[in-house]
Amino acid sequence: MAAKSDGAPVSQRNEIPPECPSRSDPRPPQRRPVEQRYSLPDCCWTLCALLVFFSDGASDLWLAADYYLRRDYWCFALTLVFVIVPSVVVQVLSFRWFAYDFSETVESGTAAAAVVAASGAEESDFSTKDSGERGAGRSAAAGVLPGPGTGGGARGCCRAFMWLFQGIIHIFQLAQVWRYVHALYLGVQSRWHGDPERRHYYWRMMFESADISMLRLLESFLKSAPQLVLQLSIMIQASQVLPLQGLSASASLISLAWMISSYQKVLRDSRDDKLPMTYKAVIVQILWHLFTIGARTLAFALFASVFQLYFGIFIVAHWCIMTFWIIQGETDFCMSKWEEIIYNMMVGIVYVFCWFSVREGRTRCRMLIYSLTVLVENVALTTAWYLYRGSRTSDFYAVIMVCLVASSYALGTFFMFVYYCLLHPDGSVSGWGYIVEKEVPVESLASPASSLPPDLVSSPPRTLQRTKGSDREQGPGVDGDVFQVRPPRGAHAPVPPLTPRTEGPVIRIDLPRKKYPAWDAHFIDRRLRKTILVLESAAPVTPRIQYRCLGTPKEVMEYETTV
């Protein structure tokens, strides 16, 4: 899932034009008029996320213990399995990330050598190409800066203690808690320090937030979603609701809705070409997913209480269809074909419960097809339960359950329209053309940030103008934008583009921009993270990140012959 990153300087013979050729549309990309900073609402949001995490896990364990004391060993085993197995999977993945970030690797030494080479130059370029002899030629310079394990006995003891501490944290299944606390610490440090330390801490905080979002999203759909269906099925079969069952189901539902919305918010906050999502919009999106997932899981539980075997067949069939649908959409998240298929299979699990955008561009048609499919499935599952329910279920109880499914899905759809029509970060979305009308400050239209070329970025940790799928097919000179931003009435025409900043190190990533909802390469590739953090901490100015531009055929050929 990662590109090669050795931090070797780019030779002059492979010099690439500093910017992509301009497209026919002179509109500047959407950019924030001011740089984002860590704020008190961000801190409160992280604390609330910790509360959601603890409430979800503690309620499940409490319920499992209650099943054991009631001698209901079958329910106890199922509840405990859906707690332990997903948690172990997430801990293994988290520890693997920590081991790579903290281990002594060749990439760290080469990145340090690149910093030494850049420290005496006014402008330096670094490439993520696997440069072989270039990296070997620079490896001798790595001794100038102390490596991870060359700080003497005290440094070795600190490293050993950190390995032991992280091992204990992950054994006790507390990796998410540690990462949340670490993100809080980095955010607070970014507020207390000035530039350039503030940029460094804020960049690291965004990297940590990206890791937490990925881990928690995976855990939610591996643990909370099955747990919610299981507890609802038990309650329906028993025709009674225990307090702990209701508490566990509610915590699982809130965790699912929270993590989907939190993932979208962190993703937008990490991108310079995306406007940030306000907390008002996040709350509405939580309500949207809360009611739609609630209706979905309730329909699942009703059907599973009568048709256990057919329910399993239905889930597998729905997952297979959604996975093939996603694969057909040609997502662009991972670095290899098989990793991409595994990623699509994981997203297929998400699609069993709710909509999750996996493509850039016009997704309204796909979202409409998915919503209609889910609506038909919910009606079919609920109708089958209503017709074949047992004699113990009264008509009044059955009508109440049917009304709950219908009203919950209707409320979720209502909040979805509220989000897209009133609170979407890009403005009100109306019609099938995705025309966005947003008030943009006049000064931001002529700001230096808005005049940067689409493949450059100069403010951490924001990234670059996305490479649309249409850019790959249409080539340069053809507009492939989906969103159109209209300037306010009376706004003056923007001034001629300013020359982008050229001083300081440039990190060239020999990959095109990834598609939404994929993170950019330097959020996915941990080797790129190391290079960026080392360069950012040593350079007097923020390193610029330059992605591979598909608009220049010469550049594409040069990259493809060296990768």
Automatic annotation (TrEMBL):
Compositionally biased tracts (Basic and acidic residues): 22-34
GO terms (BP aspect): apoptotic process involved in development; engulfment of apoptotic cell; phosphatidylserine exposure on apoptotic cell surface
Protein location: Cell membrane; Membrane
Entry keywords, A to Z: Cell membrane, Membrane, Transmembrane, Transmembrane helix
Residue ranges, annotated region (Disordered): 1-34, 446-499
Biased composition (Low complexity): 446-461
TM annotation in the entry: 73-98, 281-303, 309-329, 341-358, 370-388, 395-420
InterPro entries recorded: XK-rel, XK-related_scramblase
GO cellular component terms given for this protein: plasma membrane
Keyword Membrane among record annotations: yes
Signal peptide interval: none
Membrane disposition: Multi-pass membrane protein
UniProt family annotation: Belongs to the XK family.
Name under which the protein is recorded: XK-related protein
